[in-house]
Design brief:
about 525 residues, 7-stranded antiparallel beta sheet, mainly beta, 3 helices, about 5% helix, 12-stranded mixed beta sheet, globular, 40 strands
Length: about 525
């Protein structure tokens, strides 16, 4: 009997940690940061990377990159990226119509990082493109400016990054500029070393063009999504020449948010606006023929990002239209949902966290659906990372609003293409380095409180940072938050059992996974053998 009990205990010791490796939710805040602006995440080699800009006293805007373990949410590193041009520091921007940070896998398996930056001695925007190692160290970084030549002087123009496509022949940087008073779409082809191969602008003289996304078809065509009075989808060759353009006529105002290509299908998501926002999906084949189109009449909701696996579609969105602001009970929330490949709803979840406008970082899909966003400062500020099960299980309280798919009447037709012009881009090599960031953490969930502080290194280093932690325990589900040191004190007022070691990471508890189903039959087996 004793021998069988030992076998049971060993089995539990092996299986229970595996069973508990489920959903997780973690929030980070850099100690010196007043605000953080998250960018689009990337999954690479078992790590979840996310980069963006953080503010210090609303004056300085620095660049950061964070890496987590995808299975547990454990912090691997958090670094500030420092860029200098001729000993002059290049800062980020906290406002703008572009993305604060975009990460893509490079052609050789490293990371291509793109940041919204500030021009030197100007309030205009520029773009930084950098190649990073998986450790967060910078291999090279370049600074891209867009000048405009008038009759008697050269005046700066905006260059705000919107999306990035990494292909076998180079990097395609999609950006937004302004040719007063209209918006201009800019596409720059960059070599794998950061040199400009060509740069072009795409302009509708009547309405301007606002870019929102870029992707690649299976036969090598570049697909670019822009908004004019109506959304347009452009097919380009590898030299940036337009080969085909189709327009979307919904019979009402609409904005296209993102284009995504998978399994020879082109997915376009966005929102209609009969009154408040209503999200839509239009699916085309790679020749531009309509396959299906559906709308989801959830008033005030919007689709922002889309990804897929072999079976299903996964969408990141937000609830709360700007037209609803100021009304009683209004909050902007994170919305995650899954559809089948014909657009029929499987599940949808609205999380309990409120977010500020345009502070959704993005989504990446692997074993889980990984979502990043900035959480409202009034409830403990920071960038939240969340691993959501593909069955819709969310590691925090959530709502499931009614979601109905309806057929959408849309006319797809060839339209006049925007005018295309070659443009000049100034490129500068940057000196770059990184340093470890100071990060503290708290875990508020009912009476669960944990605080951890990571000490920074003032010079670049690869040595691990020291960790000090105080942990309290509870049977409640744990939500882990890294927040400011001055804020974390209020999370540690309750007293409970301390962790056995100051260097031990706080325990990450998931939901009740299969472990309980392993435990029950083994206990029954033990009793039977007696």
């Amino acid at each position: 009997m004793r021998r069988k009990q030992i076998i049971i205990l060993i089995t539990l010791a092996i299986l229970l940690p595996i069973a508990n490796a489920t959903n997780w939710k973690i929030m980070y805040m850099i100690n010196d940061a007043t605000f953080m602006h998250p960018g689009q995440p990337l999954i690479l080699g078992g790590s979840l990377y996310q980069a963006g800009v953080y503010e210090v006293n609303y004056v300085k805007y620095s660049f950061y990159i964070i890496a987590l373990n995808t299975s547990t949410g454990s912090l691997e590193f958090a670094k500030e990226l420092i860029f200098n041009l001729n000993e002059t520091r290049i800062w980020g921007r906290g406002i703008g119509a572009g993305q604060f940070g975009i990460l893509r896998k490079s052609s050789n398996g490293d990371i291509i990082a793109v940041f919204l930056a500030k021009r030197i001695k100007s309030s205009f925007s520029a773009t930084i493109v950098a190649k990073l190692k998986e450790s967060g160290e910078v291999e090279w970084a370049k600074y891209y400016l867009l000048p405009t030549t008038s009759k008697d002087k050269v005046t700066p123009r905006e260059l705000m990054p919107v999306d990035v496509l990494v292909a076998s022949d180079g990097i395609y940087l999609l950006g937004k500029s302004v040719d007063n008073p209209k918006s201009v779409t800019v596409l720059i082809k960059i070599s794998n070393d950061g040199d400009v191969i060509w740069a072009r602008s795409y302009m509708n003289l009547d309405t301007g063009t606002i870019p929102t996304g870029i992707d690649l078809t299976s036969n090598g065509d570049i697909i670019m999504l822009v908004n004019t009075r109506k959304p347009l989808l452009l097919w380009l060759d590898k030299d940036g020449n337009i080969t085909k353009v189709v327009g979307f006529d919904f019979g009402m105002p609409a904005k296209a948010e993102k284009v995504y290509v998978a399994e020879n299908r082109i997915y376009v998501i966005g929102h209609l606006r009969p009154e408040l926002f209503e999200p839509f999906i239009v699916v085309l084949d790679e020749d531009g023929n309509l396959i299906w189109a559906k709308r989801y009449p959830n008033s005030g909701y919007d689709f922002v990002s889309i990804a897929s696996d072999v079976e299903y579609l996964y969408i990141l969105g937000k609830s709360g239209s700007t037209l609803q602001e100021g009304k009683e009970g209004y909050e902007r929330r994170v919305w995650v949902l899954s559809l089948d490949k014909e657009g029929n709803p499987r599940w949808n979840r609205v999380t309990g966290d409120s977010i500020v406008m345009n502070e959704l970082g993005g989504m990446a899909v692997d074993e889980y659906i990984y979502v990043t966003y900035y959480r409202n400062a009034l409830r403990g500020a920071g960038v939240v990372f969340m691993a959501i099960g593909k069955d819709g299980h969310v590691p925090c309280p959530s709502n499931s609003p009614t979601l109905i798919a309806e057929q959408l009447d849309v006319k797809i037709k060839d339209v006049k293409p925007p005018s295309v012009s070659d443009i000049k881009v100034e490129v500068y090599q940057l000196d770059a380095r990184s340093r470890e960031l100071d990060i503290s953490e708290a875990i508020p969930c009912e009476n669960v409180k944990t605080t951890t502080t990571k000490q920074s290194t003032l010079s670049p280093t690869k040595s691990p940072t020291e960790t000090k932690s105080k942990t309290t325990t509870s049977n409640e589900e744990i939500i882990k938050i890294l927040t400011k040191t001055q804020t974390s004190k209020e999370y540690t007022k309750t007293t409970s059992q301390k962790s056995p070691s100051n260097t031990q990471s706080p325990k990450r508890e998931g939901t009740c996974g299969p472990g309980i189903f392993i435990l029950i039959p083994l206990v029954l087996l033990s009793k039977r053998k007696r």
